[in-house]
């Protein structure tokens, strides 16, 4: 194995030296993950901007279509994300023989997920009818999703193969192919949306075809790379193919379904809040969306650190280094907390300038500036919770954290936000700010409970190594 990506701990170093060495490993693993996340986010930005220049109907259709496929993808992405700690654990344990069988069970799950997504996305007529969309917008939305569905198998295949590449510590691989997909998506959008090279102008539907083709090209390129790269000579997707194994699939699902559901719960909460705010008018909704977009962009860094932390903790438990796994899982809170404080200070200091970057409307700017104050506090607790839950995923502890997130978001965050936003029960109605305070309350609960779980109930080295070594049982 390439230990430049996942080095074994050096126990003769001082505590400070070991901590800094582990942080350096997180940076090496997490840097490419960050670039990959930004590249994937850029696709959505490109689609939105280019569809908007076609027509308002095309923009609305792409936005609605994206809001329908994204939650489904996030669920399956989380489910297949179980492959990363599983394979990283096998990598740490030097149990190479289990890596390709686990990868193939993930590929089979990706195939099943593709069928489910395609069936759902190509039959959204009832949902569009409920939304009471104008006929042409509904037509473009369905056309966009029909085209996008052709690329779903490639999208989920890349997600499954990411378990192999990231699990081996080669996080630059998915970074490279994510950037490739974005670079392909941009010119294809131009060709299909506006009708270039002799093709008819497809508008928003062209976005779906561009995304499907760019995903497919990236998947084929990734397969070719894995087949030809020296780093993967000992892993042969075709020669090492195994049949579907129910025990192996259950093992992945046992870890992955709670991750997927947790991500889905969080994403759906923000969608529900956006719907609740609609009666408050477009100015409030616009300010809320700007503040949410800002924290989403900033969240890419701690999210990337968290994904790297999952890989590192699972590797170390597999390598029978539980003390170093505890060290990195806990010391990462210092690193993430420092990052959050810097971001919070920037949001406090430059809220007016940030709002001005997004809009020239003074009323929207005023709402945004007010909400960015709460977003700064939101950022701090959000970073703490993602760090804790990422470390727990490295220990393959996902079920209890799922219930913690469900309770914190839907049991505390949403009810508290609704009370503060629309009622005078606790204080006079606060509007959108009430929901942000509710989110802060929910994330604070999640941070405390997940931190308690991590510090007091994280699996010890013996149990963690046993889980990695046994694989599917």
Secondary structure blueprint with pairings:
Elements: H1 15-54, H2 56-80, H3 83-93, H4 99-121, H5 125-130, H6 135-149, H7 152-167, H8 171-194, H9 204-228, H10 246-277, H11 282-318, H12 322-349, H13 351-358, H14 362-394, H15 399-422, H16 432-457, H17 461-470
How would you sum up this structure, described in words?
Residues 461-470 have low confidence and may be disordered. This protein folds into 2 domains: 32-244, no CATH class; 263-473, no CATH class. It has helices spanning 15-54, 56-80, 83-93, 99-121, 125-130, 135-149, 152-167, 171-194, 204-228, 246-277, 282-318, 322-349, 351-358, 362-394, 399-422, 432-457, 461-470. 81% of the residues lie in helices and 0% in strands. It has 473 residues and is mostly helical.
Please describe the structure with a list of short key phrases separated by commas or semicolons.
473 residues; mainly alpha; 2 domains; globular
Rg calculated over all Cα atoms: 22 Å
Inertia-based shape: globular
Q: SSE order, as H and E?
A: HHHHHHHHHHHHHHHHH
Tell me the number of helical segments per DSSP (H or I, 4 or more residues long). Answer: 17
Oligomer: single chain
Helix and strand content put the structural class at: mainly alpha
Terminal Cα span: 25 Å
Query: Averaging pLDDT over every residue, what do you get?
Result: 86
Number of domains: 2
- Give the beta-strand count: 0
Instruction: Give a quick account of the main beta sheet: strands, pairing sense, barrel closure.
Output: none
Summarize the amount of helix as a percent range. Answer: over 70%
Low-confidence stretches: 461-470
* Beta-strand percent range: under 5%
């Amino acid at each position: 194995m390439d230990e430049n990506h996942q080095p074994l701990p050096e126990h003769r170093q001082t505590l400070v030296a070991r901590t800094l060495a582990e942080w350096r490993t997180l940076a090496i693993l997490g840097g490419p993950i960050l670039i990959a996340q930004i590249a994937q986010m850029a696709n959505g930005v490109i689609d939105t901007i280019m569809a908007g220049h076609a027509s308002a109907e095309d923009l609305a259709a792409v936005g609605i279509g994206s809001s329908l496929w994204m939650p489904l993808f996030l669920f399956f992405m989380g489910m297949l994300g179980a492959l990363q700690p599983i394979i990283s654990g096998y990598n740490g344990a030097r149990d190479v023989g289990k890596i390709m069988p686990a990868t193939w069970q993930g590929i089979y799950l990706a195939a099943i997920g593709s069928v489910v997504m395609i069936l759902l996305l190509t039959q959204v007529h009832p949902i569009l009818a409920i939304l009471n969309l104008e006929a042409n917008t509904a037509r473009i939305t369905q056309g966009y999703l029909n085209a996008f569905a052709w690329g779903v198998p490639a999208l989920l295949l890349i997600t499954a193969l990411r378990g192999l590449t990231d699990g081996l510590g080669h996080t630059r691989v998915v970074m490279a192919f994510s950037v490739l997909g974005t670079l392909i998506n941009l010119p294809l959008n131009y060709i299909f949306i506006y009708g270039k090279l002799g093709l008819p102008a497809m508008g928003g539907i062209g976005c779906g075809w561009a995304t499907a083709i760019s995903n497919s090209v990236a998947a084929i390129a990734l397969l070719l790379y894995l087949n030809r790269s020296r780093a993967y000579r000992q892993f042969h997707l075709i020669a090492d193919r195994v049949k579907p194994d129910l025990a192996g699939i259950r093992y992945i699902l046992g870890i992955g379904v709670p991750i997927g559901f947790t991500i889905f719960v969080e994403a759906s909460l923000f969608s529900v809040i956006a719907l609740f705010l609609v009666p408050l008018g477009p100015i409030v909704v616009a300010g809320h969306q700007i503040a949410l977009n800002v924290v989403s962009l900033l969240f890419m860094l701690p999210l990337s650190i968290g994904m790297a932390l999952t890989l590192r903790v699972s590797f170390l438990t597999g390598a029978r280094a539980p003390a170093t796994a505890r060290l990195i899982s806990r010391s990462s809170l210092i690193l993430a907390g420092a990052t959050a404080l810097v971001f919070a200070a920037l949001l406090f200091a430059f809220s007016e300038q940030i709002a001005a970057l997004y809009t020239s409307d003074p009323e929207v700017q005023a709402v945004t500036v007010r909400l960015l104050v709460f977003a700064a506090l939101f950022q701090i607790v959000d970073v703490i919770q993602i760090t804790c839950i990422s470390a727990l995923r490295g220990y393959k502890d996902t079920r209890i954290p799922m219930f913690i997130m469900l309770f914190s978001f839907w049991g505390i965050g949403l009810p508290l936000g609704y009370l503060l936003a629309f009622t005078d029960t606790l204080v006079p109605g606060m509007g959108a700010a009430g929901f942000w305070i509710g989110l802060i309350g929910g994330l604070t609960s999640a941070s405390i409970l997940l931190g308690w779980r991590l510090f007091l109930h994280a699996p010890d080295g013996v149990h963690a190594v046993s889980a990695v070594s046994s694989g599917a049982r």
